[in-house]
Amino acid sequence: MKYIVIGEPCVDIIHKPDGSAIHSYGGILYSIISLAILSKPGDMVKPVMNLGEDEFENITSFLKKYSNIELSGINKVKHPTRKVNLYYTTYKSGLSARFETSTHPTYPLKFEEIMDLIGLSPEEIDAILINMVSGIDITLESMLKIRQTFKSYIHLDVHNLVMKTNPDGTRVHTNLRNWRQWCLCANTVQMNEFEVKSMSASKKNEYEIVEELLINAPKTLEKIFHKNNITLMEFDLSKVNLEGIVITKGADGVSGYQKKEKKYGNKSFVDLDKFDVGAIENHNLKDTTGCGDVFASAFMLSYANNRDFIKSLHYANRIASLKTSIEGIENLYQLK
Description:
The protein is an alpha/beta fold. The chain has one domain (2-335): UDP-N-acetylmuramoyl-L-alanine:D-glutamate ligase (3-Layer(aba) Sandwich). The protein has 10 helices and 15 strands. The chain has helices at residues 28-38, 56-63, 111-118, 140-149, 179-184, 193-198, 206-216, 221-226, 291-306, 309-323, and strands spanning 2-6, 9-15, 21-27, 44-52, 74-77, 83-88, 98-102, 127-131, 153-157, 163-165, 171-173, 188-192, 244-248, 254-264, 267-277. It starts with a strand and ends in a 13-residue tail after the last helix. The model is unreliable at 91-96 (pLDDT under 50).
């Protein structure tokens, strides 16, 4: 299997509730390394990303420890690597349990750059993980073109698409323009419980967002993709195939949604199936940083291989729980 991982790395400074701080590399590196560790012998993991020249040698040297990570998709840029300060308060205390400040990320990868960095024909790629770690890792136009070009399974982690950076570097949730187009370009979409609430300007709740994407959107695809002329290219609507939505909820586990045709008497209708998976309690909890990124890689890996939505939810939930007992990317090998 050949996996492409798109997103941006960063340098994390993790400020813990006890006042201590940990310096580590983070961002997309959690997804890349966990995918490399969990994948089968002979699989290839290829990160496609911009990486600041200030950390290029350090990060690529670390990634070379994993023989199945192909480094030719990493683009060295002069822009410094993004620095993120993560401040944790009390575990399980909700959105306020963590806030962050960030320096500016590098520029978004254009579609032509993505194709050059991948360096393989679309037919050779089995799955693509797009993790919007900085929120501007790629543009919507690139996302649209990726969907049109690749028949591969695509998993989108919404992540910081619904975040904005204030002048002082603090980051807060905001709504996402064209959120339907972003999500419909993937086969499966992942977001956490706070991201889903921030998605629409009209403040749709979790069920309304899922219903709009899985049930209502297929009826109005032409309107969604062509009304606002968001791209100059022709968009083949037959390429749209959103199969499921995953909502991660930290200590409350994860919920997954799929649409399903059902019958009531002689009538057929389409409804939502919801699957709730409880969190696995971890008595050795050390660090929750990167859990969502590890969940994304584990879910994508499982679903790409078995196309079993519920099984993939349980697998990713288990791996993410194990990650909470591991600090930093240096120790991710313990996931094996």
